Amino acid sequence: MSDAYSILRRPIITEKSTKLQESNRYVFQVARSATKIDVKLAVEKNFDVTVLNVNTITVKGKRKRRGPRYFKKPDVKKAIVTLAEGDSITLFEGV
Known about the structure:
Layout: H1 4-7, E1 8-11, H2 15-20, E2 25-30, H3 36-47, E3 51-59, E4 63-66, E5 69-72, E6 76-83
Antiparallel strand pairs: 1-2, 2-6, 3-6, 4-5
């Protein structure tokens, strides 16, 4: 992938991901075609931090029903990024 801004879609803010931030790990939704190297370079470029490790997960979309018809939500790829000691990312202000 060429553009660092098209790789990182959004940060994932949940109770579990907030707990991971205590151990310097951050969770992002990324493009489905992004590799671990793409994610590492994008995070380092956008947030000016040092990335030690990247784990990726593809979450299958849920099957939903509206009336007699079923449809499937899109699959989502997530990346858990481990940062070097002393680095951090401010995802939202006021915390």
